[in-house]
Amino acid sequence: MSRVGRMPITVPQGVVVNIEGSRVTVTGPKGELSRSLSPDMLIALNDSSLTVSRPSDNREHRSLHGLTRSLLANMVTGVFSGFEKNLEIVGVGYRVEKVEDNLVFRMGFSHTVEVSPLPGVALSAEAANRVKVSGIDKEVVGQMAAEIRAIRPPDAYKGKGIRYAGERVRLKPGKSKQAAK
Known about the structure:
- This protein is an alpha+beta fold.
- It is 21% helix and 37% strand.
């Protein structure tokens, strides 16, 4: 039995779960998420907890069991409290500013890079070197953060670039002089 799949999902007060066949809709104070899951998985709502069970022990059902439970748990968490990713900009002259809904990055290129938020995502520049990506869908928030990081990933030699908050960048040693012959 899947350790992740077995765990029940507690549904907080104010969150409504609607199950129609393989389509699950979760509504909460932050918004509404809807997703079509595998029709093989059995999703049950008892009082204030969701449980996912599988019909057999074959390989496909075992792999879908934990996945379905994780997707449901992320939907419930997203509509109740939301998700956020924080990014840091490291480097002299590297900065970000908010223009309307978009972010404008100055990352040492000959041009500025403008990033528009994906639907359901809010972008904010908390400082000249900090960016916050927030939303209710964990998958979309992670995708948006990855797209921002891809503008200028951390350099392996100096550590300059955009990184996730708390990410440790291992620096390579630079060139060293050869010994005199």
